[in-house]
Amino acid sequence: SDVCSSDLGFHVERFTLVVVVLVAALPSASNVAVLTERFGANTGRIAKIILLSTATAFFTFSGAVALLVDS
Fold first, then answer.
1. Could you give the CA distance from residue 58 to residue 30 in angstroms, rounded to a whole number?
2. I want to staple 54 with a disulfide (CB 3.0 to 4.6 A). Which of 27, 41, 42, 49 is the partner?
């Protein structure tokens, strides 16, 4: 079916649902590091968070694709 019912009470097309979930599985944006440097925040900590989220995204994104995309 092209339309998925949601527990939230509204309909969303399957393609739209897949796109939203896959975008949510992507790692944090690296431009955050530029902003932390500009505003004087802890750049080392932010770099670690970006590295961790990118490494984790390899598994979460692959898993989300495997679950959501029809074989």
1. 16
2. 27
Whose tokens are 């970006």? That residue is 50
Determine the Cα angle at 20 with ends 33 and 3, to 5°.
175
pLDDT in tens, 4-53: 655 667 787 878 878 888 887 777 777 888 888 899 999 889 889 888 98
Compute, in degrees rounded to 10, the torsion defined by CA atoms 3, 69, 16, 12: 30
Return d(Cα 51, Cα 58) in angstroms, integer: 11
**Side chain identity at residue 70, one-letter code:** D
* Spatial separation of the C-alpha atoms in residues 35 and 23, rounded to whole Å: 22
Cβ atoms 28, 21 nearer than 8 A: no
- Rounded Cα distance between 27 and 64, Å, is 13
